[in-house]
Every structure is written in C-alpha cells, then in structure tokens.
C-alpha cells in the first residue's frame, strides 16, 4: 500500500523534534455542489528541528512514532535556512533594542494658545423632565 504524501503549512514548532502541520483540502459538497475547505492538523516528526512556523512542507505517512505522531517531513531544507543551534535560538528569542528617535523642536506656545481656547467644551444643556398632568375626571354629583 502506498504511503500518503500531503502538503501543508507549519503552524507550531514549539515541541522538540515535532511540528504541527495544517493540511487544507477542497471537497465538493454532495448536495450544493460547492467546493468547501476542510483542514486537519497533523503532528509531524522533524528530526533536526529545522522547520519554523509558516514554512510549507511535504509530509509522508510512516509507522507510528507516538500516540499522535505518524508522519515525517520529507521536503528539503527551505532555501537559505540552516538548522538552528540552541544558542542561536536563544539569541533570536531576546528582543532587539529599538533605535532612539531624535527629539523634535517644540512649536511656539503662542500659536498653540488660540487653538486651545477654540477647543473649549460646549456648555451643558439643561435637561428638563416633561411631566404629564393628570386630567381631573368630572365627579358625578348625585342629587337627592
């Protein structure tokens, strides 16, 4: 029986020697005859930890390696990417310092003052509650 070969995108590379690959396929709906996207995530063995999130990889079915892992990566190393060592991964995890922006000279405060006066808050309108007066019903006077 031939082994399945699938193509997908790496969505997680946090585990050691394992990547999660999302494989999307298009299927025809039996009634509506429209194509729908169906996706499934596979746990895939990555011996050298060389694939990162976003890489497109080809995976092949193999014997079970663990409870959830039955595929291995068969595609070549992505162009321009070498497997990282632990120190390189540690350096990549530390955030780089941002360059300090140059201070801009402040504008005249005289020009800013008229603008501040123009932006005064509008006066609050007083809200009066409408009350409805009850109509007095004419009382029936009984004469004796």
What name goes with the CATH superfamily of the domain at 5-93? Nucleic acid-binding proteins
Question: Strand sequence of the main sheet, in spatial order?
Answer: 1-2-3-5-4
Q: Residue-averaged pLDDT, rounded?
A: 77
The CATH class assignment of the domain at 5-93 is Mainly Beta
Describe the structure.
The mean pLDDT is 77. With 144 residues, the protein is of the alpha+beta class. It has a 5-stranded mixed beta barrel with strand order 1-2-3-5-4. The chain has 2 helices and 5 strands, in the order βββββαα. The protein has helices at 86-93, 109-118; strands spanning 5-12, 18-28, 35-45, 56-61, 69-73. Helix content is 12%, strand content 28%. Strand 1 (5-12) and strand 2 form a beta hairpin. The longest helix is centred in the last third of the chain and has 10 residues, at 109-118. The chain has a domain at 5-93: Beta Barrel (OB fold (Dihydrolipoamide Acetyltransferase, E2P)), CATH 2.40.50.140.
Key terms:
alpha+beta; OB fold (Dihydrolipoamide Acetyltransferase, E2P); five-stranded mixed barrel; 2 helices; 12% helix
Secondary structure layout plus pairing:
Blueprint: E1 5-12, E2 18-28, E3 35-45, E4 56-61, E5 69-73, H1 86-93, H2 109-118
Parallel strand pairs: 3-5
Antiparallel strand pairs: 1-2, 1-4, 2-3, 4-5
TL;DR?
The chain is an alpha+beta fold and 144 residues long. The chain has helices at 86-93, 109-118; strands at residues 5-12, 18-28, 35-45, 56-61, 69-73. Strands 1-2-3-5-4 form a 5-stranded mixed β-barrel.
